[in-house]
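thought: fold this chain, then report.
action: predict
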Amino acid sequence: MYPPAHVSPRAHRHPACGRHRHRPLTQWLGSRGLLIANAVGGFGDAHAPAISAATLAAKGSVDIGLASIAVLAGFTTNAISKIVVASTVGNRRYALELSPGILLSVIAGWAGLLVA
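observation:
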């Protein structure tokens, strides 16, 4: 699986494509980096950031609690982007009808984390 099929092995060995290029960011941001990346990534897609956090937790790179918070951060910002899109693309009534369900799902997610 490493390197990706579309990247030639020779190109992947280039120093700019090194396996450990994330280390300076990790050292600089620490666990906040995962939270920031998932929150920002959530504006576009909730699935990719969630998979990223789950993969890091499965490998033991981050604590499961931190990964859970990161998933919910991406889910929350994704919900915000959905409400914004509903407000700008649809009319006000559409946004008012859609927003409560989205907000309830976010509240339920965070409540589930607090209960667990």
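thought: worth noting. Residues 3 and 32 are 27 Å apart (CA to CA).
final: tokens above.
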